Known about the structure:
This protein is an all-alpha fold. The chain has helices at residues 2-30, 39-42, 47-62, 79-91, 99-126, 129-141, 143-148, 155-170, 174-187, 192-209, 212-240, 246-251, 259-268, 278-292, 297-315, 326-329, 340-345, and strands spanning 66-68, 71-72. It contains 17 helices and two strands. The model has no long low-confidence stretch (mean pLDDT 90). 71% of the residues lie in helices and 1% in strands. Strands 1-2 form a two-stranded antiparallel sheet. The protein has one domain (2-345). β1 and β2 (71-72) form a beta hairpin. α1 packs parallel to α6 and α4 packs across α5 (99-126).
Amino acid sequence: xxxxxxxxxxxxxxxxxxxxxxxxxxxxxxxxxxxxxxxxxxxxxxxxxxxxxxxxxxxxxxxxxxxxxxxxxxxxxxxxxxxxxxxxxxxxxxxxxxxxxxxxxxxxxxxxxxxxxxxxxxxxxxxxxxxxxxxxxxxxxxxxxxxxxxxxxxxxxxxxxxxxxxxxxxxxxxxxxxxxxxxxxxxxxxxxxxxxxxxxxxxxxxxxxxxxxxxxxxxxxxxxxxxxxxxxxxxxxxxxxxxxxxxxxxxxxxxxxxxxxxxxxxxxxxxxxxxxxxxxxxxxxxxxxxxxxxxxxxxxxxxxxxxxxxxxxxxxxxxxxxxxxxxxxxxxxxxxxxxxxxxxxx
Length: 346
């Protein structure tokens, strides 16, 4: 018990520092008046944020996701974010706080929890408090993530659930893994890739041993995601007659050969840590270090972001210049935090 308390005690200074960095960036952005208005505080950059806020208001008032009154809809991609938007409407009852500002505050708190998850995964990958701090700072200071926390979008929440699911897996808390993976899937459908990688890894362990303990671990991790998927698809089928939300059919397109190149060149290669190719070198060194670590999470940590980037590239057309527009960049953001523990290990 003393060892556990001592370990947690070492984490708190890092966690407090990173929370302060996130908070300072959020305050700096929200107080900005560069367009001559307070749009940074009262506006959202994409219509998806407003759409989820409408569904969230309905959930807050009636418990059901209406867009038009008394008409159930499946026009939202993220059920989990609708719940967060509902919480923003509940908080808007406080004096001098509207739903948009409340959502930005909640988004900042979620981003802080996401960066703490980056720290914990970095501790697993490199067994270093300094490495954990470095990975956390990279997460907190990446412009795309810093903007995401106040954008009214769900991308930081998806990354947060995914990161903590991998950390729980390292600690062999398999039911927690399953619930977090299911919530990640309910936040961004592309996070189903992480669910699949974890289930494949656990299935392989069970096939190697055929032990009851490994079978229980596999079921605990897989069944919550399966249950959440059936619930979400069942709702969509009942409302629209199709098993996926309307947004999927509106936005899905077959990818183009240059899509993955666009993602890597404009969303990954241009990260600030890659100054003078430092990030690429550190990442390559980190891959070697992480492979040497005797933990089952290492392969999923290494493969997931690249599977994610590939899936984004083949599921929608990403035109040249996508890295300059948050409309496109948001699709890539949930996988970015998984790169930083590897760079820290390097």
